[in-house]
Amino acid sequence: IIIMVAAPLATVSITVDSPPAIPNPLEHERPMFVNVEQEKKIFIGATPTSLDKLVYDIGQALGGPNPQSKIVMIRANRYVPYKDFMEVLNTLQTGGYLKIGLIAEDL
Q1: Taking every pair of C-alpha atoms in the chain, what is the biggest distance, in angstroms?
Q2: What are the start-end ranges of the E strands in 1-107?
């Protein structure tokens, strides 16, 4: 009998102001695409560049503060020698670009 009498007295109403359940859409940054082709041909998007100018040209293409924090995606087909591909990857890493992704597509 005591529980039945005390239970309604323990009820306390608290007003809670909670945010809406709809989350804000996250803005995803678009990555920069680097294409490596045969004979050491390198393209940033559709713009040709060379291995020596790669880091500078990507910095110019990305623009804005701290371009090294941006995502760079590398794409190459099966006919590109592994050594050429790794030179591009190592050049980007040496230049401070550490967010590098590899694209594998069946072309």
Answers
A1: 90
A2: 32-37, 41-44, 47-49, 72-76, 100-103
